[in-house]
Each structure stands twice: as C-alpha cells, then as structure tokens.
Amino acid sequence: MHYTYFVGLDVSKNFFHACLIDSSQNVLFNQSYPLDYQGIKSFTKALPQGLKKSILIGIESSGCYHLNLITYLVNHNFTCVILNPILIKNFAKLSLRKTKTDAIDAKTIAIFLSQFHQKLPPQAFTSEEFKDLARERERISQEIAKRKNNLEKLVVVTFPELERTVNIYNTSILKLLEKFPSAKAIKKASLEEIENILSSQKGKKPAISAKEIKALAEYSIAQNWPAKEYILSRTIQELFFLQETLKEIEKLLKSACKEISACQDLDILLSIEGIGEITALHFLAEIQDIKRFQSYKQLIAYAGLDPAVYESGNFKGKSKISKRGNRHLRRVVWLMSINVIRHNPIFWSYFERRKRQGLPYKKAVLATAHKLLRIIYALLKYKKYFDPSTYHNIPSQGGFYYAYNFS
C-alpha cells in the first residue's frame, strides 16, 4: 500500500511523543502529548484529516505502556505497526549523533517507517489477550514446578520413607501431608483419620494403605522439624491454588482461541501427531497470524532458532542459535519438537537420521524443530491438514511439496 504520511510514536508511562513526516521526510510536527484521553484526541486531530488510509503509524514496543494507545488508534481505523526495539536501535546507529531524546526517537521511528514500511509484515492486534493468557499459563506452570521442587525437598526431610515409597504428588497423599506434614504428625494421627483422607479424594488412589503409611511413620528416621512442617503445609496449599488457577486459565485460553477465529489453525496443528492442544494454543498465541511471516525463515527467526555464525578472518566460531526472537515461542517450539520426536514416526525418523549424520542430541532436536516449523508454516498458510500417508507424494505446484518434503 502507498502511504503519504508516516508517524513515529515514542511512548513512556505518562506521555507519548509523536513525529509526523511526509514521504519526502519533511517534519510536519514533532510534539509531546499526555497519555490520556484528551492527549490522544489532540494527537489524532493534529493528523491530516480525511486521509487515514494514507497515514502509517509506527510505535516501538514498550512493555505495557503502548497497548491502550495502539488499540485506540486501531479501533479508530488507523493503520499501525508495532516495531521491534532492536530494529530501531540498529537503525538509529546509522546516525553519527549520540543525542537521544523522545523527539529524536519519534523522528527516527517515522523515518524508519518511510524507508522500510513495504518490508514490514502485517500486524495482528486482535490476539493480545490470547497471548496474555498463554504467558500467564506459562508463568503459573513454572510456579507449580517450583512448588513441587520445594515440596519434594521438604518431604525428604520430614518423612523420607513416604517419598521413597509412593508418588507424593497424588492428590490424596498431598491432602494427607497438608494436614499431617511429617512422620511425627502421622504417628499421632489415628488410622481412621488417615483412611478418611485417602478415601475422600477424587482421582487415582495411592498405591499404599493407611496401615502401611502408619508403619512407615513408626520407623521413620525423620527428626523434629516444626518450621519445615509449617512450610510444607503452606506449600501444598499454594500448589492446590495454582493448579486450580491453571485449569481456569486453560478454559479462558480455549475461549480466547475461538474469539479470534483460530479454531481451524488449532485443528491443523493437532493433525500433527505429538502436538497437544495446550501446546498448540501457546504456539498460536505467540505467532498471532501466520500471514505476518513472508516465509518460514522469518518464522524460524522470530522464534530465535535461526543460526548465528561468528566468523572474522581466519577465526571461525561455533554456530549457535541467535536467541534474539520470542523466547516464549522458542520454549513452545522446543517442547513441540521433543513430543513429535517421541510420538510421530516421520519426525522420529528425521531426528534419528540427523543423529547418524553426527549431530549431537540438542542439535538434532534443533534440526527437527526447523523441519517442524517449515511444515507448520506451509500447513497454516495453505490451510491444509498434516497427512503422513501423502508425505512423499504431494504435488510440487505452489511450493507445498517443498514445505512437506524436507529430505
């Protein structure tokens, strides 16, 4: 699309600076506004009226500060793009001047837009909450893992025999330890109390009886640890709360996927054996829209899985992944790759072949991740489902064979 005007926005917590230039990079205004309703209204009134389609607004991603502003502008039919700060930083280095102000930053963004707007991918602003939910679920999952790690260390001290004998993450066992958080406490508990706790919980029953637990407690080497008992009980309460929160977030995540009409994309991902629903939801939340990427190479780079080669003269450094992309997406792709290797014969075969060629485990997984992303890109772009039976027999027209047949 042809644009006549370019606007660079530099946003802080309470203010934003706007610079408007024309296609010849003449500055039409460069002004600061308060980040409130009146400030945004004043800014939009200062733009050329009746020419929204000829105006491109660029805003540097600034954590959470830019969200309300960019959403307001998009909702009022302005064309906006969110820019990676690394791009603007590197572009600014082309200038020999070291001065840095909000006005200069806004002008730099506007000039960057005027020069490179045709190479920028389409933007997707409808899935911000979808992404927020996915990242909150990721955070909660990490918190659960921390609680479980701490819990195991505490049980090893307060009741080591139980930890060696049974799965302590069984709901019934956790409920028992919440009330009686040590061998000493279980010694004092009646057999009836223990049996009531074990039998009252839903789900899989523990592979141990109340009598056996009492017997373990009688001969336990655990000493008196009142502080650790208290911490263990509290940790289990926190674990239950986090697990319930995780279930609620997963429901919201599925609803958010439906709201942005990504159900078909979800089904496409699930057609690949080894990719689960929750992992697929995380993947879609992070990429937002496959149309943002002009090729599978851009998708790989966005995940930070593209190779970074260091060479200078006769020196050749080790090739590593750049890790300059989306770390949340990179984590999801790694998990997806591990799972398809375990459960999908096609990817397992490719992984084994790369290992036979001399790649160590992690690099073989990385090679498989590249293959997986290439296939996913083609499937989502052409709205096709993964069909292993036609893996080597897809026509080459339209590039789809290339996306599938990566030998």
UniProtKB/TrEMBL annotation:
<dbReference type="InterPro" id="IPR003346">
    <property type="entry name" value="Transposase_20"/>
</dbReference>
<dbReference type="InterPro" id="IPR002525">
    <property type="entry name" value="Transp_IS110-like_N"/>
</dbReference>
<dbReference type="Pfam" id="PF02371">
    <property type="entry name" value="Transposase_20"/>
</dbReference>
<feature type="domain" description="Transposase IS116/IS110/IS902 C-terminal">
    <location>
        <begin position="267"/>
        <end position="351"/>
    </location>
</feature>
<feature type="domain" description="Transposase IS110-like N-terminal">
    <location>
        <begin position="7"/>
        <end position="160"/>
    </location>
</feature>
<dbReference type="InterPro" id="IPR047650">
    <property type="entry name" value="Transpos_IS110"/>
</dbReference>
<protein>
    <submittedName>
        <fullName>Transposase, IS116/IS110/IS902 family</fullName>
    </submittedName>
</protein>
<dbReference type="Pfam" id="PF01548">
    <property type="entry name" value="DEDD_Tnp_IS110"/>
</dbReference>
<dbReference type="GO" id="GO:0004803">
    <property type="term" value="F:transposase activity"/>
</dbReference>
<dbReference type="GO" id="GO:0003677">
    <property type="term" value="F:DNA binding"/>
</dbReference>
<dbReference type="GO" id="GO:0006313">
    <property type="term" value="P:DNA transposition"/>
</dbReference>
